[in-house]
Fold this protein.
Amino acid sequence: MVIGAGACTRSDKAQTERDLHKTGEVVKKELKNDAAFVKQEALKAREETQKGVKKLKRDINEDKAAHRDDSQQ
């Protein structure tokens, strides 16, 4: 008993191509959603970093001012 290499029919092949296309579209949509989420998280992280830098600069300036006050006395 020999099974030919062409066991798939044209309709099977066409259905497989449609299924692959659907899968590709789903993956593309998920990647776009993931990219949007990552971008949003990156913006949040940047804002938090900027807040931290501002606080650190403020603390340093306060320490410098306090040190100047101490040295002038």
Remarks:
- The chain has a mean pLDDT of 88.
